[in-house]
């Protein structure tokens, strides 16, 4: 399995926070790459598939759910989950339907990361 | 927005700030501060987020002075207060992320009573100048050493629809004159 996690968020601050939380949750041995929107993420995933993509939902250019649907359309198989401000039932249903493995609502804790990500990365 | 929903939203807003302080701001202590009667223009740096609650446009905001925004941004990024100051763009990004999370927390807390749709955050350095249709409800808090004001901007109950406001009336009169000329 690749040892890379791709963090997709238009906020530089949030990308830093996700990096820090990954470290605190015990995933410090993974290399973390970043993308600022779905289009950038598509390009990076095309270059080298990461072990996991952690994506925001609302982003310019291409949002998180559009990114996941585009990956599905291109038949790219990659573990994918959301870290987002809103976690409404509608959004969770949409994420589930598109194949997202988790949806973590902000603000989050390292423990939430650990319990959502450990089963996927072990 | 009726007074009961205003009170619900303000309380949810304060709780959401407390949750953000306890998590992504690293557990900084939160306390109520003396009420703010008139906002000091110097304390009006901060992040705003527009949202729609029950079809009414409202805004939430977290304001502090420039140094306070620096401190909160450093806390969010896991930096020490003594670290070199962040550039303005990073402060704006961090404060927008803070209000984004706070607004998400507000939505989660009031969703049983109010249908809320979130807009996008905006960082503003300068005094708040609400128009005559807006009502400002504030709560002063301290987040560690940083004094902040949490604001809820609602529409006045007796406000005229925007289509009947003075500016639009003048514009409509001018247009009518031009068309009849």
Please count the beta strands of chain A (DSSP E, at least 2 residues each).
5
Strand order of the largest sheet of chain B: 1-5-6-3-2-4
Order of helices and strands of chain A: EHEHEHEHEH
Low-pLDDT ranges of chain A: none
As a whole number of angstroms, the C-alpha radius of gyration of chain A is 13 Å
Give the number of helices of chain B.
4
Helix- and strand-based class of chain B?
alpha+beta
Question: What is the strand and helix layout of this fold?
Answer:
The complex is a heterodimer of chains A (122) and B (181).
Chain A: E1 4-8, H1 12-24, E2 31-35, H2 38-47, E3 52-55, H3 64-73, E4 80-84, H4 89-98, E5 103-105, H5 110-121
Parallel strand pairs in A: 1-2, 1-3, 3-4, 4-5
Helix pairs in contact in A: 2-3
Chain B: H1 3-22, E1 30-32, E2 45-53, E3 56-64, H2 66-76, H3 88-110, E4 116-125, E5 134-143, E6 146-155, H4 166-180
Antiparallel strand pairs in B: 1-5, 2-3, 2-4, 3-6, 5-6
Quick recap:
By secondary structure, chain A is an alpha/beta fold.
Q: What does this protein look like?
A:
The complex is a heterodimer of chains A (122) and B (181). Chain A has 122 residues and is of the alpha/beta class. Chain A has helices at residues 12-24, 38-47, 64-73, 89-98, 110-121; strands at residues 4-8, 31-35, 52-55, 80-84, 103-105. In chain A, strand 3, helix 3 and strand 4 (80-84) form a beta-alpha-beta unit. In chain A, helix 2 (38-47) packs parallel to helix 3. Chain A is globular, with a radius of gyration of 13 Å. The N and C termini of chain A lie close together (10 Å). Chain B has 181 residues and is α+β, with helices and mostly antiparallel strands. Chain B has four helices and six strands. Chain B has helices at residues 3-22, 66-76, 88-110, 166-180; strands spanning 30-32, 45-53, 56-64, 116-125, 134-143, 146-155. In chain B, strands 1-5-6-3-2-4 form a six-stranded antiparallel sheet. In chain B, a hairpin with a 2-residue loop joins strand 2 (45-53) and strand 3. The longest helix of chain B has 23 residues, at 88-110. The chains are: A alpha/beta (122), B alpha+beta (181). At the A-B interface, helix 1 of A face helix 3 of B.
């Amino acid at each position: 399995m690749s040892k890379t996690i791709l963090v997709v968020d238009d906020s530089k601050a949030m990308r830093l926070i996700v990096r820090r939380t990954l470290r605190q949750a015990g995933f410090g041995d993974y290399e973390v790459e970043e993308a600022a929107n779905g289009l950038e993420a598509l390009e990076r995933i095309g270059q080298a598939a990461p072990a996991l993509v952690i994506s925001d939902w609302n982003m310019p250019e291409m949002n998180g759910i559009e990114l996941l649907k585009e990956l599905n359309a291109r038949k790219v198989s990659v573990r994918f989950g959301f870290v987002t401000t809103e976690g409404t039932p509608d959004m969770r249903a949409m994420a589930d339907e598109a194949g997202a493995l988790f949806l973590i609502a902000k603000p989050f804790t390292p423990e939430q990361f650990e319990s959502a990500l450990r089963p996927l990365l072990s | 927005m009726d007074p009961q929903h205003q009170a619900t939203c303000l309380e949810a807003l304060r709780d959401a700030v407390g949750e953000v302080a306890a998590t992504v701001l690293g557990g900084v202590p939160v306390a109520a501060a003396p009420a703010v009667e008139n906002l000091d223009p110097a304390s009006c740096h901060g992040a705003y987020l527009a949202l729609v609650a029950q079809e009414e446009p409202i805004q939430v905001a977290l304001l502090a002075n420039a140094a306070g925004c620096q401190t909160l941004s450093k806390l969010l990024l896991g930096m020490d207060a003594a670290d070199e100051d962040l550039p303005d763009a990073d402060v704006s990004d961090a404060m927008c992320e803070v209000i984004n999370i706070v607004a998400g927390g507000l939505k989660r807390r009031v969703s049983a009573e109010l249908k809320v749709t979130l807009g996008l955050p905006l960082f503003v350095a300068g005094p708040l100048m609400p128009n005559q249709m807006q009502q400002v409800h504030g709560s002063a808090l301290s987040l560690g050493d940083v004094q902040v004001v949490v604001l809820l901007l609602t529409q006045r109950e007796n406000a005229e629809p925007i289509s009947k406001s003075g500016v639009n009336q003048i514009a409509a009169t001018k247009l009518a004159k031009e068309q009849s000329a």
